[in-house]
Write a structure and sequence with these properties.
Largest sheet: 2 strands, antiparallel
CATH superfamily: Cobalamin adenosyltransferase-like
Strand order of the largest sheet: 1-2
Shape: elongated
Structural class: mainly alpha
């Protein structure tokens, strides 16, 4: 019986391969970072699975997921090797598209006068988890750069920053379409 190509056994000793073929420890901060990107992408997929009534927004989310894979592929390769492998890049177009979508949705929302509590429907709660996940990955990307002094993939930080803004506005927008009231933060006295 032929072995499945899903498991290679090459990581059984705690190392994994980069795009370049170089092997590094699975405990390396680079691996942690693109693992966080993968987790964020999975959270996004989960949130999208709860948004069946909103196919336009789900289609947009799928383009975001592809861009996250682009960013992850760059993190899985040393800076000096990225151009050699012609890896796909996060583009100014995807960032501009996020900004246009944020502006479009935000124009249909009541301006915020207070912070709001994350939650609402399953879809909006999942979108808030995505928002916080995007902020987490953004922080880790900054930390990685400070730790390694490696040049980050072009536009990676900007993309993640816009992504958290996008998912915040999307959560509010979907909540509005689902006729869900936002719950204002009431500081304890």
């Amino acid at each position: 019986m032929k072995k499945s190509s899903i498991y290679t056994r090459s990581g059984d000793e705690g190392k994994t391969g980069l795009v370049s073929g170089n092997r590094i420890s699975k405990a390396d901060s680079r691996i942690d970072l693109y693992g966080e990107l993968d987790e964020l992408n999975s959270r996004i997929g989960f949130a999208a699975s709860l948004m069946g009534d909103f196919p336009k927004e789900v289609d947009h989310i799928h383009s975001i997921q592809s861009a996250l894979f682009d960013l992850g592929s760059n993190m899985a390769c040393e800076f000096e090797n990225r151009s050699k492998y012609k890896l796909p890049q996060v583009t100014e177009e995807i960032i501009k598209d996020l900004e246009l979508e944020i502006d479009r949705m935000d124009s249909q929302l009541t301006p915020l006068k207070n912070f709001i509590l994350p939650g609402g429907t399953q879809a909006t709660a999942a979108l808030h988890l995505v928002r916080t996940g995007a902020r987490n990955v953004e922080r880790k990307l900054v930390h990685y750069q400070l730790e390694t002094h490696e040049e980050l993939p072009a536009l990676g930080l900007i993309f993640l920053n816009r992504l958290s803004d996008y998912f915040f506005v999307l959560a509010r927008y979907i909540g509005k379409l689902q006729n869900t009231s936002e719950i204002p933060w009431k500081p304890q006295k």
